Amino acid sequence: MYIIVVGGGRLGYYLLKALLNEGHEVLLLEKNERICSTIIEEMGSVCYRGDGCEAATLAEVGTGRADMMAAVTGDDEDNLVACQVAKHKYNVPRTIARLRNPQNVALFKKLGIDVTISTTDLILEAIERELPTHPLTHLLTIEEKGQVIVDVKISPESATVGKTMKELSLPKESKLALVIPHEGSAHVPSANTILRAGDQIIALTNPESEEALRAALRGI
Amino acid sequence: MKIVIMGCGRVGARLASLLDADGHTVTVLDNDTYSFRRLPPTFGGTALFGQGLNQESLKKVGIEEADIFVALTQGDNRNVVSCQIAKHIFNVPRVMCRIYDPLREEMYSALGLETISPTKVFAQLLKEKIEGEKTEG
């Protein structure tokens, strides 16, 4: 695969290294001459000095045959523009943008960026997972389908403890996949499965029904 | 008309005062309050501190009721992104975007933004002036 990485900061640097190790053809675009020459000295001619948002630069590095672009500069706007130019001018099939402002996720999706990675959201999710009181955590986002896989913890205070699945009014967009009890082995829930305190429910839902799902499962 | 202008540089400030003088409701947004010195004392519109890439800031300047959004910061990418936020998130009926880079300008114009490249316009203007004078002389 030919992958173009835009932005030679720490993230771009380590990304370049890792992708080269995996045997991909990778080219890093970086505006700063000093950063560029340091990388070339270390890894050979895998870095090109230029602005990844400029159509002219992207033409010079053969963006037309690239399979993927990952824009990982520290500025959301630069990452968006680099991906948009790659997508609309050079038909790059997959574009990935790094984001700092989580609000931009919706905009970038709307504008056709294939994958957005909001570092703020990632760290927030990691923190939430560590908090035992947090009832719902995101495990995985399935971008293409607009679905998320979540983990809902049933606490002793949940009003649903002792109830069967069929008694719950779950949003119809949500599907329960697995119950991981506090003790014992995990099982696929049926209509008669009884909820117990300490259960962890793995469910598939769309982001809009997330709150309704949490409320239905915990009864509070 | 309600007009929101992002960037209170020379062009932004001048445009704001011209539109204000014509009786439009003008709000200027800049991330440096020092820029507001460029607005004339007669300016009757609103000048607010804020980031055009930040949706809360845009709400504060009344983007939801705006008829026109104009992006005039020094950064092409900033202008492009804030115009797309105005168009796609806040459904502003008309957005106008300054893009210095002519290639980027062509692409975003094709993507449906109303764009102006001062580089292109000014170069063309100078060329016409120079060649025009030649033929006269």
How is this structure best described in words?
The complex is a heterodimer of chains A (220) and B (137). With 220 residues, chain A is of the alpha/beta class. Chain A is built from seven helices and ten strands. Chain A has helices at residues 10-21, 33-43, 55-60, 76-90, 104-110, 119-130, 210-218; strands at residues 2-6, 25-30, 47-49, 68-71, 94-99, 115-118, 136-142, 147-153, 175-180, 200-205. In chain A, strand 1, helix 1 (10-21) and strand 2 (25-30) form a beta-alpha-beta unit. Chain A is elongated. Chain B is of the alpha/beta class and 137 residues long. Chain B has one domain: 3-Layer(aba) Sandwich (Rossmann fold). In chain B, 43% of the residues lie in helices and 20% in strands. The longest helix of chain B has 19 residues, at 118-136. The A-B interface holds A 53-56, 75-78, 80-81, 84-85, 88-89, 101, 103-104, 106-107, 110-111 and B 53-55, 75-78, 80-81, 84-85, 88-89, 101, 103-104, 107, 110-111.
What is the total domain count of chain A? 2
**Helical content class of chain A:** 25-40%
Distance between the termini of chain A: 49 Å
Spatial ordering of strands, largest sheet of chain B:
3-2-1-4-5-6
Most strands sheet of chain A: 6 strands, parallel
Q: Low-confidence stretches of chain B at least 5 residues in length (pLDDT < 50)?
A: none
Rg of chain A, Å, rounded: 22 Å
Annotated CATH homologous superfamily of chain B: NAD(P)-binding Rossmann-like Domain
Order of helices and strands of chain B: EHEEHEHEHEH
Helical content of chain B (DSSP H or I, runs of 4+): 40-55%
Oligomeric grouping of the chains:
heterodimer
CATH topology of chain B: Rossmann fold
CATH level 1 class label of chain B: Alpha Beta
- Got a strand count of chain A? 10
Q: CATH superfamily membership of the largest domain in chain A, which one? A: NAD(P)-binding Rossmann-like Domain
**Which CATH class of the largest domain in chain A applies here?**
Alpha Beta
Low-pLDDT residue intervals, each spanning 5 or more residues of chain A: none
Largest sheet entry of chain B = 6 strands, parallel
**Tally of discrete structural domains of chain B:** 1
How do the strands of the widest beta sheet of chain A line up side by side?
3-2-1-4-5-6
